[in-house]
Design brief:
The protein is of the alpha/beta class. The protein contains 16 helices and 14 strands.
């Protein structure tokens, strides 16, 4: 197609014509931005990289799509581990993680797997995508600046199984894992897939769904047991024996910044869950380490979401709650409003920076406690991204440990685990 010399300035396509047949749009570019609107106006079709890779896939390549507000990366990697137990197949993580699928197409063979972590931004630009397995893990309020409302957000997520039919598997959670305002649109999408012949299964955090005991998992919390249940169901669909699924789940290590134990100092467990950037993710994190006292670090850059359920859960579970960053003042007002019935020795403190909050936690945590960074907010008030925040948390804890060791005030019990984190 020829482009005029003054394209983008004075040249305007006539009605029914476009400058481009297809536009591959970057996932984070919201539909309401001027650039995205221009792309839609001047292109016959606007799609995501995942959609293009699917269209160019060779015959026999197995696509598995994983989406949800929380847990996508962990579940994608769990599924990759489980399916890698099969002989003579290659299993790749693609989509929102790993190597771009387009770069891998030349090296795949019939029977290989693409396990695609699909963000809501990517899902919104799918059209012909038809994976053999599509899993929606959960859905809570997030990214509404992009999707505008929770129903649209849910509908965009459901596009991963918009074409599922005979022989395909659709996995969804129980209703309580889905935002109530999105349930109708999700239910309609699930029913449509079922009518096309897809097998629909509801997954719950049930230990009986797993080929091993819950305590054998190295990933903590009920939310991670749920992720393991999804991975087990996908393994069963592709015929992976329980013994191989069990082995894969037992050996799986948490991904960095996702309920990642960075070490133990003076019998205190330090956990980096910086990836928890919304309240629901942090609520899930609170289910881990039952029976141990908890110091919880919350804060960062607010996404203007509802903190009510998080505050209630934190008041029940955490003995010490340390609030930091731009969101600290707003969080403190919520805690003040609800904490009238909290125990007299429960501390709720605010700090200007995460550094100050971490130093306080390190100095005051008692033996047999857990210090958990699970911020429930974005990181951009102080950091480049959640990885930067998680690494800084690790370095702060390490620095405190090293300084205390030099002063002879602590043991060396946790440096053995910490050095491998960076």
């Amino acid at each position: 197609m020829q482009l005029s010399a003054d394209f983008g300035v004075n040249s305007v396509p006539t009605v029914g014509e476009h400058y481009y047949d297809v536009c591959i749009i970057t996932p984070g570019l919201a539909p309401h931005t001027i650039l995205a609107q221009s792309a839609c106006e001047q292109s016959a079709e606007v799609i995501s990289e995942v959609e293009l890779a699917y269209r160019l896939s060779p015959p026999g390549l197995n696509w598995v799509a994983i989406t949800g507000t929380n847990g996508k990366t962990t579940t994608t990697e769990l599924v990759r581990e489980v399916l890698s137990a099969q002989e003579n197949v290659q299993v790749f993580s693609v989509g929102n993680i790993g190597t771009p699928a387009l770069e891998l197409l030349a090296s795949v063979r019939p029977g290989d797997f693409f396990i695609a972590e699909v963000s809501s931004f990517q899902a919104a630009r799918l059209s012909t995508f038809k994976p053999r397995v599509a899993a929606l893990l959960n859905l809570s309020s997030d990214h509404l600046d992009w999707h505008k409302d929770i129903a649209r957000y849910g509908a965009d997520k459901c596009r991963i199984f918009a074409n599922s039919g005979n022989g395909d598997l659709v996995l969804v959670p129980e209703e309580d894992e889905l935002h109530e305002l999105a349930r109708p649109v999700i239910a309609a999408a699930v029913l449509a897939a079922e009518k096309r012949g897809a097998c629909v299964r509801k997954i719950s955090a049930d230990e009986h769904c797993l080929p091993l005991e819950k305590h054998e998992l190295r990933i903590r919390g009920d939310h991670n047991m749920m992720n393991a249940c999804f991975a087990t169901a996908i393994g069963h669909y592709f015929g992976v024996p329980d013994t191989d699924i069990s082995k894969a789940l037992k050996s799986f290590q948490p991904q960095p910044h996702r309920m990642q134990e960075i070490g133990i100092f003076e019998d205190v467990i330090y956990v980096n869950d910086s990836k928890s950037t919304n309240p629901d993710a942090s609520i899930s994190a609170l289910s881990a380490y039952a029976g141990l006292e908890l110091t919880l670090l919350l804060g960062g850059q607010s996404k203007d979401v509802d903190y009510l359920d998080l505050v209630r859960a934190a008041l029940v579970r955490a003995q010490t709650i340390l609030l930091f960053g731009q969101a600290a003042v707003g969080l403190k007002s919520h805690f003040d409003a609800l904490s009238t019935g909290s125990t007299s020795d429960q501390q709720i403190l605010t700090f200007e920076s995460m550094k100050d909050a971490v130093h306080f936690a390190c100095k005051n945590a008692a033996p047999k406690q857990v210090v958990l960074l699970s911020p429930a907010n974005a990181s951009f008030d102080e950091f480049d991204d959640f990885e930067h925040r998680g690494c800084y948390f690790t370095s702060l804890v390490k620095s405190f440990h090293e300084a205390a060791t030099k002063e002879g005030t602590c043991t060396d019990s946790y440096s053995q685990n910490l050095d491998s984190v960076r």
